[in-house]
Each structure stands twice: as structure tokens, then as C-alpha cells.
């Protein structure tokens, strides 16, 4: 089995609307920190110079959102109420793990201007690759946006799904939809311009708002979809980090490709 990384990094040196702060304690600083923690919390005195080379372990401190890097959006990210189930959306730590390992389907929607793709576009691509959607397929969009990751353009130039497109996928039983773009919806500026021109609230983040009425998860900020050998015939694993009560969790998404000897 070959494992293909489909994840983008959490990188404090890359541009982010919500900047990442990454502080590193060296092994020496880790020793001093450990000694202080033992003294403060457990009343234990320990001389860090007794450690080999006077060092303990390095330690990383990060300040970031759960939507930095490749991540899975939970139903609670889309709104505080639902029209399904109990009316209360689930957080990321409550989502069933079997959602996040399944047959992968890559739909190529590259080469388009910033905006949306619709149901007809998805049907055309499915016809091209000869695939019929099945429940629990993990469908991911190759928009080409990952080529601009780490730059401002990544957050402004990409395509997302319109209301009809996301409904089409959910009607087929898909529970997890991914994209290599910043969002499964169109860019912020595109959405606002369309709303101002039309006055139609249906254009306001339809892929996310759909999650208030149908339970599903999004995987955003994927990368490396062009490395996959074919649009189908592999599995995707994208288990989210179990952040209690959170609307999203980071994931190290990968494709699992079975190779014949």
C-alpha cells in the first residue's frame, strides 16, 4: 500500500488571515520549564543540571485556529441549530470515526475563475471519470488552489460549490466533502459581490449553510490531489483531532493506494 500525503502544513511563516504563533522551547529551556512545573504543581524540587547535558525535551507552543492547515469542519461549525435530529449540531469530538475512512473520489474542477461550480459541472466530471457516487464516498475537489498555499491569493482565488452542487452530493449519501481550497464555498469577496448584485441570500455560503439542514463534514485546505494516480480506486483517511466541544479539528489527511505486486 502506498500512502500519499494530502495535507497542508501548519506554518507560522506562511500568510494566514489569523496568524499562527509558534514558540519553541529548546531542550535546555524544556529542562528549566519542567523543573518549574514540578515545583509549582507537585512540590518536587529537581535540578535541571542533573539531566544529561542539562537538557530535557523541546516543547512547542502554538496559537492558531482549528481552521488552520488541513482540517475537518464539524456540523457545529455551520450554525447553532439544525432542522434535523435533536436540533443541536454535533461537535468534532462526537463525530463517528467511520465517516473519515472511505473510498476517495477526486473531481477535477481546475482552470476556472473564482466563483462556484454547480451540479451540472459535478455530473459532467463524474461522467468523464465513469463513477457513480455511493453512500460514504469521500468526495474531494481538485481546484488547483493549493498551488497558492501560503500566499494571499490562496484566500481569494478559488472555486466552491453552489447550493445545487452540495445538495447533489448529499442526496447521494456522501457524508464528507473536501477541497484543496481555503473554503468549500466561493471566496468571501465573490460571495459578497454576488449578494450585493442579486440580493439573494441563497448565495451566502450555501455549502456551509446546507450543514444546518443535512449532517455532513467538510475537509478544507487539502493538498497534493494531483499526486493521486487516478480519480478513484483509493481510500482517504482524514480522522480529525478530538478537540472537545470544537467546531473543527485538524487532520493529517492521506490517500491509501493499494499497489499490486
TrEMBL record:
InterPro entries recorded: KFase/CYL (IPR007325), KFase_sf (IPR037175)
SUPFAM superfamilies documented for this protein: Putative cyclase
Q: Name one GO molecular function term.
A: arylformamidase activity
**What is a biological process (GO) this protein takes part in?**
L-tryptophan catabolic process to kynurenine
Identification of the protein by name: Cyclase
- Organism per entry: Streptomyces cinereoruber
Amino acid at each position: 500500500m502506498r500512502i500519499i500525503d494530502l495535507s497542508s502544513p501548519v506554518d507560522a511563516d506562511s500568510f494566514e488571515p489569523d496568524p499562527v504563533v509558534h514558540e519553541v522551547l529548546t531542550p535546555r529551556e524544556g529542562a528549566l520549564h519542567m523543573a518549574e512545573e514540578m515545583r509549582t504543581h507537585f512540590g518536587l524540587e529537581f535540578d535541571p543540571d542533573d539531566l544529561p547535558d542539562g537538557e530535557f525535551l523541546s516543547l512547542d507552543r502554538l496559537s492558531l485556529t482549528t481552521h488552520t492547515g488541513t482540517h475537518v469542519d464539524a456540523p457545529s461549525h455551520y450554525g447553532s441549530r439544525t432542522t434535523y435530529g435533536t436540533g443541536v449540531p454535533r461537535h468534532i469530538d462526537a463525530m463517528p470515526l467511520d465517516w473519515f475512512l472511505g473510498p476517495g473520489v477526486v473531481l477535477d474542477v481546475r482552470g476556472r475563475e473564482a466563483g462556484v461550480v454547480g451540479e451540472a459541472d459535478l455530473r459532467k466530471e463524474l461522467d468523464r471519470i465513469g463513477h457513480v457516487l455511493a453512500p460514504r464516498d469521500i468526495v474531494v475537489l481538485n481546484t488547483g488552489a493549493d498551488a497558492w498555499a501560503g500566499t494571499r491569493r490562496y484566500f481569494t482565488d478559488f472555486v466552491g460549490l453552489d447550493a445545487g452542487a452540495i445538495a447533489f452530493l448529499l442526496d447521494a449519501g456522501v457524508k464528507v466533502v473536501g477541497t484543496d481550497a481555503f473554503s468549500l464555498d466561493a471566496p468571501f469577496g465573490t460571495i459578497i459581490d454576488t449578494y450585493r448584485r442579486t440580493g439573494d441570500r441563497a448565495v451566502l455560503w450555501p455549502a456551509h449553510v446546507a450543514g444546518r439542514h443535512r449532517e455532513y463534514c467538510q475537509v478544507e485546505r487539502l493538498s497534493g490531489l494531483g499526486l493521486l494516480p487516478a480519480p478513484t480506486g483509493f481510500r482517504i483517511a482524514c480522522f480529525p483531532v478530538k478537540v472537545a466541544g470544537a467546531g473543527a479539528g485538524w487532520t493529517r489527511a492521506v490517500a491509501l493506494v493499494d499497489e499490486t505486486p
